[in-house]
What does this fold into?
Amino acid sequence: MGKSSDIKLITDGKRIDGRKPNELRPVKIKAGVLERADGSAYVEVGGTHAIAAVYGPRTLHPRHLVNAQKAVLRTKYDMAPFSVDDRKRPGPDRRSIEISKVTREALEPVIFLEQYKKTGIDVFIEILQSDGGTRVAGITAASVALADAGIAMRDLVAACAAGKVDDTVVLDLCGKEDNFGQADMPIAYAPNEDKITLLQMDGDFTEEEFETALKYALDGTKRIYELQKKALKERYEKNE
Ligand code: ADP
It folds into this structure.
């Protein structure tokens, strides 16, 4: 991000993958993809592929973490070593610890945690293939996986990013745009609640650009939200 480069990211109003500025990459969402998890989901946003698995509500270990008033939500974001061009060193690093934390904060507001006192709900997000926007794809997947686990929620959380490349505000940055662009702003949004649960920003926007980026990102999340609901419906129709 922010690296100046000779790479031209916008040509004749089109992006490097041919998209218009406010166009999402193709999005695929499937609920219930793992047998052993209580809930799971698979999400593809272009070349970014994420899987989320939910376990719980279940007995929480270690016991000193137990909260008598509500469930404790724990989230773990991980990028598979084979998810990027150069092998990623396995295991947690500063980036994945930060993403795990913001993911938890993005999901917590929509879960009725107080319905599951003294338990733990664990969410594991694995990035299988990475091409930009992995945290938002992970949040989108986790939200569907939580619903698939039957956990009571106020709303689903849909997430996507907007940013700036070649002085143009764009929706849903791919890896190259993220690397060589000027700004990246991931957003998570609960449409029914009209609540933004995550807003981060890497790079700079003018005030006007920020307004456009916010509009693009919110529009994007609304489109993703419809696909999340469709995935959950398909899951239940199959189980009938
Ligand atoms: P996000 O994936 O949510 O956009 P970042 O902005 O931190 O999060 O990362 C942007 C992109 O940089 C990732 O989607 C991925 O394609 C790439 N990237 C991140 N970490 C690594 C890594 N260790 N090795 C190679 N590429 C990486």
About this structure: The CA atoms of residues 83 and 228 lie 23 Å apart. The pocket of adenosine-5'-diphosphate is lined by residues 84, 86, 88, 95, 130-135, 175, 178, 184, 186 (CB under 6 Å). The chain has one domain: 4-239.
